[in-house]
Specification:
The chain is built from 10 helices and 13 strands. The protein is of the alpha/beta class.
Length: 280
């Protein structure tokens, strides 16, 4: 099984960061000196994937601009002998092909993923949610790729969460534990009440999915809010006989979609960066 493509759903309004996100996409909030979305694309590149399908919207033009050519800036930096400041970003741009697909209506994560159907084709593929920044020795999505290839199955990342937080997540029910960190999923439930949660294993923003997810998303009904839930599509895949595993991903996950999570991510990254750690 060869996996070469990843979807990054990035069309949301980022209401938890208003008023900052009135003008700037939430994916462009800075983590040290780089926008959060650059960490996501770097994880894609570091995992051996070579194509990123960015699901965006008309108010997210800054993302494409960040990963595009900037001849005036480069000319200025060259004149000042500072062109090296763009070396890391330019190397990333060369290593990953980025396609942009518009999600014209906010109809949920499942709807966003389905927008990439034609670009993905009949291949297994990754999904990285840009709110979730992973700090780990091995890239988060690469951990899932290795398992998907070994097991010939879809794999979603999970982590243990407290009973108080469980209702904010999609949660797995499993019928088989294959190892300490690997589970075969029986079904998934979107944001269950704490007393109804089938486990304490919550889905986080990394997936490797079979192309069968597109058929499954066609079969599910919208949720009460009118959105197509990716978790409902995964549950439908399992009903249709697809093997779906859950893996307790190794590393630290930060939800940079909230101001508190963003602050924590900046603090941890700064402690690990030689240019900043002396400040602590």
């Amino acid at each position: 099984m060869k996996i070469t493509k990843a979807i990054v759903p990035a069309a949301g309004h980022g209401t938890r960061f208003l008023p900052y996100t009135k003008a700037v996409p939430k994916e462009m909030v800075p983590l040290l000196n780089k926008p959060a979305i650059q960490y996501i694309v770097q994880e894609i590149a570091n995992s051996g994937l070579n194509e990123c399908i960015m699901i965006t919207a008309s108010h997210k033009q800054a993302i494409a601009k960040h990963f595009g050519k900037a001849p005036e800036l480069e000319a200025f930096l060259k004149e000042k002998n500072k062109l090296n400041l763009l070396d890391e970003l330019n190397a990333l741009i060369r290593s990953v092909k980025i396609d942009y697909i518009n999600q014209d209506e906010a109809k949920g994560l499942g709807h966003a993923v389905a927008r990439a159907r034609e670009t993905i084709g009949n291949e297994f593929f990754g999904i990285l949610l840009p709110d979730d920044i992973m700090i780990s020795a091995e890239p988060g999505i690469k951990q899932l790729i290795d398992i998907a290839q070994k097991e010939n199955a879809s794999v979603i990342a999970v982590q243990e969460v407290s009973k108080e937080s469980i209702s904010s997540y999609g949660v797995i029910a499993f019928d088989k534990q294959l190892s300490n960190d690997l589970f075969q999923i029986k079904t998934v439930i979107e944001k269950p009440a704490a007393q109804n949660a089938p486990s304490n294993l919550a889905i986080i923003g990394r997936y490797i999915l079979s192309p069968q997810i597109f058929k499954a998303l066609d079969e599910v009904s919208p949720a009460a809010n009118g959105e197509i839930q990716l978790t409902d599509g995964i549950a439908r895949m399992i009903v249709d006989g697809q093997k779906v595993l859950a893996y307790k991903i190794q590393g630290t996950r930060h939800d940079v979609g909230t101001p508190v999570g963003w602050l924590k991510a900046n603090f941890e990254l700064a402690q690990q960066d030689p240019a900043y750690k002396s400040l602590f």
